[in-house]
Amino acid sequence: MRSLSSAGVLELWERGVTLHPIDRGLLALGLADPAAAAASPDWPLGRRNQALLDLHASWFGPALHGWTSCPACGEKVEFELDARELASVAGGSPAEDTVTIGDQAFRLPTTRDLARVVAAGDAASALLERCRIGGQDAAEWTGELMDAIGERLAAADPLADTRLALDCPSCQHAWEAGFDVGRFLWAEVEALAKRVLWDVHALASAYGWSEPVTLALSPARRAMYLQLVHA
User: How remote is the C-alpha of 94 from its chain's centroid?
Assistant: First the structure.
């Protein structure tokens, strides 16, 4: 897995800033492991999310610090996760390649499936139809049927849709919130890219150095020059 240099984070951020969040995750995986770039869109969602968790641990460390708002009172609720622990608890590889409900069989959804459904503005039933590999066409995708299929898919691929159990310290409201590791990773990438750009701006203003010259400095040297600029 490739490390993330200062020049690399700027390239990644610049290429991904206009992309859909789904594509940003694939872009990051491709930068870290070019050999996996072509295959990753067709991985089951759980495998993709595990790779993103591993990537976060490699680039930014395993700690995942975040927050959300309580849906009952609006209070800010913070949470902290361990990327490696989350991946291992979920079991990593899918337990099953396919699931069967009645006479219908479904393969596990992939990033490509999700992206095409989102791009078309289709409903969740379109995703299930894309993944259906056996059985008669569903006359109607009832809520009960979709819930049953969703539960089986979640059991087969636990990392495909990570849910966090949260409690509000102010009003004691308890709820579940989704955790999108791709969006979380991109927030870290964007924050780091902006810090690097501020460093370039500060050193260019002080010394007249170009961006390539500044990025070629080791992190320790760049930090020292920044201390001198701000002294």
Answer: 18
Cβ 141 vs Cβ 125: under 8 Å: yes
- Parallel/antiparallel/unpaired status of strands 63-69 and 76-82: antiparallel
First to last CA, the chain: 38
pLDDT interval class at 121 (50, 70, 90): confident
pTM of the model: 0.90
**Environment class of residue 137 by beta-carbon count within 10 Å: exposed (0-12), middle (13-18) or buried (19+)?**
exposed
Residue among 141, 175, 191, 159 at smallest CA distance from 70: 175
- Cα–Cα separations (whole angstroms), residue 2 to 9, 30, 33, 43, 81: 12, 10, 6, 20, 23
By CB neighbour count within 10 A (0-12 exposed, 13-18 middle, 19+ buried), where does 117 fall?
buried
Per-residue pLDDT at 123 exceeds 80: no
